[in-house]
Design a protein that fits this description.
- By secondary structure, this protein is α+β, with helices and mostly antiparallel strands.
- The chain is built from eight helices and ten strands.
- The strands form four sheets. A four-stranded antiparallel β-sheet has the order 5-4-6-7, with helices on one face.
């Protein structure tokens, strides 16, 4: 129960950070904010500020920053719709930017005590490794990409390899200062003997570097970028059919997973660190998903903002606001339906 409470609090904080991004940038841009809410549904607590109602609502599955003139026409000069295009753009992307920065900050804090990192430079091979040689891999090679996907951190090698269902892979390595392409290598998981035990490995030994401040900053940033790439790869799998709606999780599933992560940890400290790492992933996941060009999401509004700007340059006309709102309303209905389906699915997974 404790980890469920912690997970709910962390999830709520990520939502609050997202909405605070919209709120703070809107205020800085002189846009009137009518309500700043954490949570959805029935009102629990509220406080009326000078012009903004600050509220806490029952369901920790969302939140909003309700700006004047955001969803309707307004004569108020401080309305969102009357602000210049660049101000609207900054406000719309601010939520995702704050989530990304929050995730990056968590990662940098988690890595602050790390003393060394594995690199993507090969230092040796396990006995029986099948891809060693001048025309294949050699000690000293730095693996730069696997199957066309860049290797930012050492863990990317096994991650990208696990995504492939082929028997061979294409690599790009840096050898003696030059890039070398190695195609159709039979680099797959196989059994190796390690310390008297049989294990499944790719057969590579990788180097280690000291965790200096620049290295920590670089690896923290690369970890955040990898979270972004994970979202894109997941979306790609959805479109190709390698994953389906049954693989999606909503707030219920996320909280349940975070609770399981906490319970599976050996100590309370390990649980907190693991939950924070997962929270960083969710924060960056939220930042990416909210910028997708889907109606009702921030990305959908950015899409219409850019489209209207282009139309105005070409024809001095814009899409009537009511039609844009129809599209966003339809998108919201579709998203709510999807959220309901995913929520039922999450509940089913918990009890089955």
């Amino acid at each position: 129960m404790l980890y469920i409470v912690i997970a709910v609090i962390l999830f709520g904080l990520l939502i609050a950070i997202h909405e605070f991004g919209h709120f703070s940038v809107a205020k800085l841009c002189g846009i009137q904010v009518n309500e700043f809410s954490i949570g959805m549904g029935p009102l629990l607590l509220h406080k009326q500020g000078k012009e903004t109602l600050y509220s806490l609502r029952l369901l920790p599955i969302g939140g909003y920053c309700a700006m004047e003139g955001e969803d309707e026409e307004s004569d108020n000069p401080r309305a969102f719709g009357n602000a210049s295009g660049w101000k609207q753009f900054l406000v719309l992307i601010a939520g995702s930017a704050f989530n990304f920065l929050a995730g990056l900050l968590i990662l940098l804090c988690l890595y602050s005590s790390v003393t060394s990192y594995a690199t993507s430079t090969i230092t040796g091979f396990m006995d029986g490794f099948p891809c060693e040689g001048e025309d294949m891999l050699m000690v000293g090679d730095e693996i730069l990409s696997v199957n066309g996907k860049a290797v930012l951190l050492s863990g990317d090698i096994s991650t990208i390899l696990s995504l492939s269902d082929e028997d061979t892979v294409d690599l790009v390595v840096r050898r003696d200062g030059e890039k070398v392409k190695l195609n159709n290598l039979p680099l797959t998981l196989q059994e190796y003997e390690v310390d008297g035990e049989t294990v499944w490995r790719y057969g590579l030994y990788l180097g280690v570097e000291e965790a200096t401040l620049p290295v920590r900053l670089r690896n923290g940033f690369y970890s955040a970028v990898n979270f972004v790439r994970t979202v894109w790869w997941s979306l790609e799998m959805l479109f190709t059919g390698d994953a389906g709606i049954s693989d999606l999780s909503g707030p219920i599933g996320i909280v349940n997973t975070m609770s399981e992560v906490g319970q599976a940890s050996a100590t309370m400290l390990d649980a907190i660190l693991n939950l924070l790492y997962f929270a960083a992933f969710i924060a960056i996941n939220l930042s990416v998903m909210n910028l997708l060009p889907i109606p009702a999401l921030d990305g959908g509004r950015v899409f219409f903002l850019l489209l209207n700007g282009l139309l105005y340059l070409v024809s001095r006309r814009r899409i009537p606001a009511k039609y844009e709102q129809y599209v966003h309303l339809a998108g919201m209905c579709a998203l709510l339906l999807l959220m309901a389906v995913v929520a039922l699915q999450d509940v089913y997974k918990i009890f089955v």
